Amino acid sequence: MRPVLAVAVVFAVWWLGTGAVFLAGRTSGAARKWSFAAVTLLIAGIVLGLAPAVSHRTDAAGVVQGLLVGFAAWAWMELSFYTGFVTGPSTRQPMLGASFRDRFRHALAACLWHELAIVAGLFTLLVLSPGANRWAAGQFAVFWILHEVARVNVLIGVPHPFRELLPDHLSHLQPYLEPRPAGRWLHLSIAGLLGMTIAAAAMAWWAPGAASIGWAACAVLLGLGVLELGVLLFPVPLARLWQWFGMEVAPEALAPR
User: What are the domain boundaries of the chain?
Assistant: First the structure.
């Protein structure tokens, strides 16, 4: 039952958290500012108040709470980016036909503060977790891996980068989401994440006690990462997953390509 609990928690939190981030990113300027401030205070309270105590608990409830702390910390990272408050120092765009090196340099400048915030977030979770339960930092680290793999693939080029999910105030990032034929890196990334998923699932099977919950959660999250990379190959209307949050499916997302 413990791995099943992990699967349910990961799917529920992933779906709800992603929908909430997309919804916040599409609100008006004032509403976006106040919602970001309120969520920042809430998540800061959760992480600062819960992480140290949870790190000393290795039972099932402690592991689940640690995973939720990691989810909350990552949710703030995503919210800070999609609301446009923690992005990068530059909105300059690469010239048409620019090399990958030039595109990478511009993309890094466009997202630098966000990338540094992620590093600081992981360091903070590690500092706040002096005990044996470090699943908050572990879950956050898995999110970071998936985040970087997806970003590099989109920057190199994928057939369907899902430009319709980008809010209007991040329109300067549109040049990095131009559809391109899938390259070798995308297939290698899928294979690598699939291997990590299998390894985490094996750990969930063999790990003693409540640790199986943490490994199962990592396996599910990595599996979602494999699925995410896979759908970059096809015109899947992902926005339909969050229509209850007010997400609209752009017509171009449904058009054959």
Answer: 2-248
